[in-house]
Amino acid sequence: MPKTKTDRGAAARFKVTGTGRLRRRQQNRGHLLEHKNNVRKRRLAGEVEVSSADRKKVRRMLGI
Fold first, then answer.
1. Which of 7, 14, 19, 49 is the most exposed place for a label (fewest CB within 10 A)?
2. What is the pLDDT of residues 14-56, one digit of tens each?
3. Are 59 and 10 in contact (CB under 8 A)?
4. Residue 40 sits in which domain range?
């Protein structure tokens, strides 16, 4: 059986931590930042954990 290829789009968007958790960037921080207030931009700055509903799909895309 052939190896499964990693989905390169998913590899760019998700990161696996040392303990095996999946992290992702939050949306709404890519562009059009002038009209968003600083509190909102600061809140969106960090990474968050992938939701439990999506974990299985993301793991399959990453080939883990």
1. 19
2. 999 999 999 999 999 999 999 999 999 999 999 999 999 999 9
3. no
4. 8-62
